[in-house]
Amino acid sequence: MATELDRKARGPESPVGLEDAHRIAKHSPENGELPEGRAQMSGGATHLPSGKSNGGAVKAEERSAKAEAARASLLAAAKTCLLEVGFANLSTRKVAEAAGVPLSQIHYHFGSKSGMVLALLKAENDRLIDRQRIMYAEDRPLSARWKKAVEFLEEDMASGYVRLLHEMMAASWSDPELLEDMREVIGTWQQVLTDVAEEAEELVGGYGPFSPTEIVTLVGAIFIGGEAFLLMGLDAHRMAVWPALEKIGQLIEAYETKA
Q1: DSSP element (H, E) containing 25
Q2: Which of 22, 32, 149, 245 has its CA 20 to 30 A from that of 116?
Q3: What is the pTM of this model?
Q4: What is the CA radius of gyration of the chain?
Q5: Are 117 and 167 in contact (CB under 8 A)?
């Protein structure tokens, strides 16, 4: 996608150094002999001064940089606005105003409001998936990795990622195209956890009647359900989420010791 955006941002390429060629021709002596440093004519070809021939490429890079800057500004503004009003009330016009770019830039970069928020979610998701992979790859007990995952949940609640994820999950229920994208997002998390569960199965001597896939399904349900309780601010459940997650870690540790 980035390559396609770069191509669109550049637009049609103009003849490289054309303005320089006109300027040189205008100021050249009538006998065709040019002062040192000017273009020289040989066999009908115009050779432009060093440093001038890449003018078009420089301008193309500038346009590409501006396009990327506009895209980044829109994503940052979208996150701020979404956390303030939610996906249903999110206004693309307000996002464009907050980003300081024309409204048309949202349609150019993302196609729609859903496309814009999905791009934001995927960018955040990719970063956090990398974080999780690094953490799970460390040589530490499964219980310690569970504890770290709970700490990450606290960070992701504070950063707004969990709110963003649940907003898009809810929106996808009535949007088949968005639903496919959200399945992919959730699927990346499930795959990371499956890799960990399959590795840990041998270390702890199995999961009793549960398969690694079933364990991952339960873990996903625990976290997504806990996140929903936290986002809704249900006092009884909100107060119970964190100690419950901590006690699951203690159970894992006891199972490790027994194994």
Answers
A1: helix 18-27
A2: 149
A3: 0.71
A4: 28
A5: yes
User: Could you tell me which residues come within 8 angstroms of residue 82 by beta carbon, excluding any fewer than 6 positions away?
Assistant: 90, 117, 120, 160, 163, 164, 167
List the beta bridge partners of residue 207: 210
Nearest to 131 by CA among 106, 152, 157: 152
> Can you state the percent helix, strand and coil of the chain, rounding each to 5?
75, 5, 25
DSSP state of 207: B
Partners of 45 in the β-ladder: 42
- Note whether 110 and 72 are within 8 A (CB): no
> Cα 90 to the chain's mean position, in Å?
19
Cα end-to-end distance, the chain, whole Å: 48
Distances (CA, A) of 173 to 81, 110, 166, 167, 228: 22, 20, 11, 11, 16
Per-residue pLDDT averaged across 136-162, rounded?
A: 92
State which H helix or E strand residue 156 sits in: helix 142-159
- Would you kindly state where each structural domain of the chain is located, as residue ranges? 2-21+39-108, 113-258
Residue 109 structure tokens: 């970069």
The amino acid that residue 69 corresponds to is A
| Integer Cα distance of 124 and 85 in angstroms | 19
CATH 1.10.287 fits 113-258, yes or no: no
The rounded distance, in Å, linking the Cα atoms of 168 and 14 is 42
Q: How many residues make up the chain in this entry?
A: 259
Q: How far apart are CA 160 and CA 156, in angstroms?
A: 6
Identity at 254, one-letter amino acid code: A
CA distance 195 to 191: 6
